[in-house]
């Protein structure tokens, strides 16, 4: 416990203490009270609160000058709740997919322009894949990533590629923006993405989007297996299954497809 405290950055700890303190109050709180109750120098408290206010974590009343939690915390909380919702709702369907297809199934979201894996289930015959729950992988060369990119505005896609690039991992990796743009258009048309040995030699993945109640892509689900098994009837079965399951999960999240 002492070691953890020694590793803390004091200014961050104080800022978080202010957020927790305001969360415990039912009304706006003046700076003097925050300073006194938290035993933080008034000038220090003011500087921390000003920074938190600039980032939307705290709001100041234009009438009293007092402080309360900002709307940005609500927005962050909503994102966490949505992620938990899709994780919990998808869980039994992921298990069913693994049992029926016999390959690895991933659930992922887009985080800071990269794929973040929030669930992974392997079958008894799964091959070794570098993905793990909680790690980030590139979006442009993974099935789940291409799905998550496909439904974004084009300028947002450009920004992500500007920041992360189009690193080549295999001979099949897409490494120029025009080709990626064309690939994403195909994904929107057919409703699913294929990673054909684009991130890892010998690995083929099929991924499809999970939509939320607003019609936005909340997450992506994929089936991954060796090229030797992901072909013919097995490949067709995987596509059919991933589309059915993602649509079921989307409907449970409140999505209603426009006719």
From TrEMBL:
Residues 9-71 form the HTH iclR-type domain. The keyword Acyltransferase does not apply. GO terms for biological process: negative regulation of DNA-templated transcription. Keywords: DNA-binding, Transcription, Transcription regulation. PANTHER family: HELIX-TURN-HELIX TRANSCRIPTIONAL REGULATOR, ICLR FAMILY (PTHR30136), HTH-TYPE TRANSCRIPTIONAL REGULATOR RV1719 (PTHR30136:SF35). GO terms for molecular function: DNA binding; DNA-binding transcription factor activity. The lineage of its organism: Bacteria, Bacillati, Bacillota, Clostridia, Thermoanaerobacterales. Residues 72-255 form the IclR-ED domain. May be an activator protein for the gylABX operon. This is Glycerol operon regulatory protein. It comes from the Bacteria. It comes from Thermoanaerobacterium thermosaccharolyticum (Clostridium thermosaccharolyticum).
């Amino acid at each position: 416990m002492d070691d953890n405290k020694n590793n803390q950055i004091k200014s961050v700890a104080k800022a978080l203490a202010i957020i927790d303190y305001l969360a415990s109050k039912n009304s706006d709180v003046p700076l003097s009270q925050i300073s006194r109750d938290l035993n933080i120098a008034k000038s220090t408290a003011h500087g921390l609160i000003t920074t938190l206010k600039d980032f939307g974590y705290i709001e100041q009343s234009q009438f009293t000058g007092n402080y309360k939690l900002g709307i940005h915390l609500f927005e962050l909380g909503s994102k966490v709740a949505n992620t938990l919702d899709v994780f919990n709702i998808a869980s039994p369907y992921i298990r069913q997919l693994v049992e029926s297809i016999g390959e690895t199934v991933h659930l992922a979201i887009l985080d800071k322009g990269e794929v973040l894996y929030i669930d992974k289930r392997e079958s008894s015959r799964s091959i070794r894949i570098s993905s793990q729950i909680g790690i980030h992988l590139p979006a442009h060369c993974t099935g789940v990533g291409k799905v998550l990119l496909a439904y974004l505005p084009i300028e947002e896609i450009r920004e992500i590629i500007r920041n992360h690039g189009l690193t080549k991992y295999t001979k099949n990796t897409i490494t120029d923006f025009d080709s990626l743009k064309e690939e994403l258009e195909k994904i929107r048309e057919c409703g699913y993405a294929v990673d054909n040995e684009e991130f890892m030699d010998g690995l083929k993945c099929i991924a499809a989007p999970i939509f939320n109640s607003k019609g936005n892509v909340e997450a992506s689900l994929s089936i991954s297996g060796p090229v030797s098994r992901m072909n013919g009837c097995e490949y067709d079965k995987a596509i059919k299954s991933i589309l059915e399951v993602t649509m079921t999960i989307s409907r449970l999240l409140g999505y209603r497809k426009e006719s």
